[in-house]
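Deliverable D4.2, example record:
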Amino acid sequence: MNQDNKYKAEHSLPLEDRFWTRRQFLQRAGMGFGALSLATLFGNELFAPAARAMEAEATLLPKTPPFPAKARRVVHIFAQGAPSHVDTWDPKPSLAKYDGQPLPGMDGVAMGSPFKFSPKGRSGIEVSEVFPQLGELADDLCVVRSMYTDIPAHEVATIMMNTGSRLVRPSVGSWVLYGLGSENQNMPGFISLRPGGAPPGGTSNWQSAFLPGIYQGVSINTKVPTLNQLIENIRNPVTPLAEQRRQLDLVHKLNELQSQNLQKDAQLESRLEAFEMAFKMQTEATDAFDLNKEPQSVRDTYGRSAQGNQLLIARRLIERGVRFVQVWAGGWDHHQDLEERLPERARDIDQPLAAFIRDLKQRSLFDETLIVWGGEFGRKPTRDRNGGENPGRDHNSKAFSTVLAGGGVRGGMVYGATDEFGAAAIENKVHVHDLHATILALLGFDHKQLTYRYNGRDFRLTETAGEVMHPVLA
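Output generated by the structure prediction step:
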């Protein structure tokens, strides 16, 4: 027997195994039939757990949270770039005392803050001089001084702050929209306002990930000069509204017909929802983003700046029932020239945010709107070696500050503390998961119970951690 024939003989099925009796067939296939029977009991759960999540009915209709809610909406002002806490909200006199000297257990030398802190309001919260107008509102603010996160890298920490994970996960806004729905069916329930290009992490910061696509944030570039560019391609210049409505109705009918025989396609459903939302937005969205409809006095109060326009748009959005508004307020990455650059950046947000808070109060929206201001991590108490004669501060994941206001938060209080130099949180430490758990609690949810089943297990915003900051709740 040659080598090829020998190989075939050794690796071919023997003749006696090529034929099965009926008894042998049932013996060998019995487990397969049993599995098929079991599948009928479990439905799609046994073989395709993801299909269950894809087929879950998603809606933007308003929902009642399981627990009494103190807030109905959230405005997250994200100070991307990581503000220096020891120069804004967390005074450290010891840094001035050791300025220019080595600090125990740290590389480099101490850098005392060039900015003065002074007590503000009846509460006496110490606020940096870079925030003169916000300082006047100290009694409305809750300053959390003991924040910390996992990794001091901008992109990773930015995504972590906005999604609660370093992986591909739904954003905070998507979870809020999933839990509460929207108060306005003609507007997106989650809108992200960004001043120009994509931030670190890009669309990951407002994505819905495995949640249905209707919970994804709509990103708006507020830097463009005209209203038509701001919400580009919303209006159809050729087809009138009535004809658009007929076209959409036809597409929905065709989709229902194919869904009777085939499993619904999650991406197709999301695309149809996007078309439907775009149609509805043609009238209401253009009105919401048109700042020319605001009195000149109001626009002057917010300031004629990019940040002022963003926060004025945010107020107009929440008035119209938008559930979650994300405002990007970056530019805080100060490795050098901190003494000159930090006050400039603080000035950009100080007047608009103070005006926003006062405006919400005047319109009786403050108590139902949770405001969150903060970055992705903090800064070291030592000088950045790359700063030269005009130093700044390097990244620090062990300590930073976040400011909360409105929406059931106790004003005029400081929560948590860092060590004497501001290097690390030591008292009532607050991880990003704890912040997210507190946000959900204010909206009427137990963060451990707000879950979504995907790939055979229940996911939640806070993963397997998170504790509510109960002392900050009013």
